Amino acid sequence: MASIGKPTDKFDDDDYPAYSMGRAAEMLGVTQAFLRSLDTARLISPQRSGGGHRRYSRYQLRIAARARELVDQGTPLDAACRIIILEDQLAEAQRINAELQARQQPAS
Description:
Largest sheet: 3 strands, antiparallel
Order of helices and strands: HEHHEEHH
Radius of gyration: 17 Å
Number of strands: 3
Strand content: 5-15%
Helix content: 55-70%
Shape: globular
Structural class: mainly alpha
Number of helices: 5
């Protein structure tokens, strides 16, 4: 039988879908339509509740907040989504590069 984590583990899980669409929109100061447009653009894909309602994680809310920031600066939504994807890819490449460099360092 798989062990089940403590209920408080969900508080620390950035990927736990804790927020309804209404709450997410309220927190970000955006419309629900804006959040749906991010789903349509495939920037974020919220999980669905048993009733089919979108549920967002903290990680997804950070991405949505970045999208809103870019759109508020005049960047078209499709370009904002592409920028965010490229920023994410760059951060991942930098993380991998740092890991590889750390492995190559001679032991002291």
